[in-house]
Amino acid sequence: MAQRYKYRIEGNEITVYPLHLMKILAFVLCAVFILLSVPILIFAFKSTEKETFFISSLTVLFAAIFCLPFFILSKRKIIFDGNTQCVYRKNIFGRKKLLDFSAIHEIAQRNTGLQSGYFIAQKGDLYGKGIYIGTPSKSDTDFTSTVLPAINQLITQTKPEPPSTATINNYKNGQFDFYESRTNEYILKPANKIKYIIPLVIVGIVWGFMLHSFLNGSMKKDTYLAFIPSIPFILIFANMTKRITFDLVNNMFIVRYLGIVMEKEKMEDFINFKITRKTTNGMHSGTDVRLLFHAVNGKQKQSFPLHDFNKTQNIERLIDETKYIINTING
Q1: What is the mean pLDDT of the chain?
Q2: d(CA 71, CA 44)
């Protein structure tokens, strides 16, 4: 049976071939192309026209070149080097260091939308995609029984970093990346407003043009059309003014739009964080961080958006800061 996954354990070094399946696919495609190329080549050699011979030969050549990237990808390696305490990626273009063993959080099974398999989760980017190391078949028990334990044993030989209290002290002194500390409240710093500027300007121009037409009397029959653009304009502007506040006095989570309180929840009803990785056509399009609360009846859960990230590196920092604030509120 053809192997979907390949690995090699040599002393203090473990090598895995995450894209070994590409080699099998390459052989299958080559076999198909050879079968299809035979009649083309026979036709080309029998033909007396040079153009026909050239086109037929070129078709076979392109078919052969098409298989080449699959062979190249199948040679990619992920190397766990116990001597240097590092993880490397190696291919035909050379060897590149990916991270130190000390930066590995865990090796776990994930589904990212495009890929499903085992990934290395990094401490500085727990909610990111991670580093793909392969997708063994269900019948392949070697990975869980041999490879994964060997990798974990190699990683745990790394000396753990001593715990640091600097971050907690920074929080106590009001030094946050995502929050602004005020008297008796913490306010989430507004997201990048630039993303609202372009749609706001476009809608504003359309609205201004339609209002100008209305005032000139050219829209007497369709007066209501002049005011339709005001709806998206107000909605976009309201999103720009969104503010999330943790009230220390009333122990409340408050969401305001245009300075008006639209949502509020008691922090004693807080359950957990909800991290949602969004994909569009299989591609990562952002990660949404939400707060989960008990509903009024105590059974259902309500979620409120806290922050949306294009990149995942800072999610852990946001959650740490928010946990500190919630623990401060709940005592």
Answers
A1: 80
A2: 28
CATH number of the domain located at residue range(s) 166-190+242-330 in this protein: 2.30.29
Nearest-CA neighbor of 16 among 26, 6, 28, 24? 6
Which burial class, exposed, middle or buried, applies to 14 when counting CB atoms under 10 A from its CB (0-12, 13-18, 19+)? buried
DSSP 6-35: EEEEETTEEEEETTTHHHHHHHHHHHHHHH
Q: What is the pLDDT of residues 185-200, one digit of tens each?
A: 999 988 777 777 888 8
Domain boundaries, the chain: 6-155, 166-190+242-330, 194-237
Residue 163 confidence (pLDDT) above 50: no
Percent of all residues in the chain with a pLDDT value above 70, rounded to a whole number:
79
3-state secondary structure of 253: strand
> N- to C-terminal Cα distance for the chain?
59
pLDDT digits (tens, 9 = 90+) for 263-289: 888 888 888 888 887 776 656 677 888
Q: Which residues lie below 8 Å from residue 146, measured CB to CB, with a gap of 6+?
A: 9
Task: Please tell me the distance from the alpha carbon of residue 109 to that of residue 138, in angstroms, as a whole number.
Answer: 13
DSSP state of 125: B
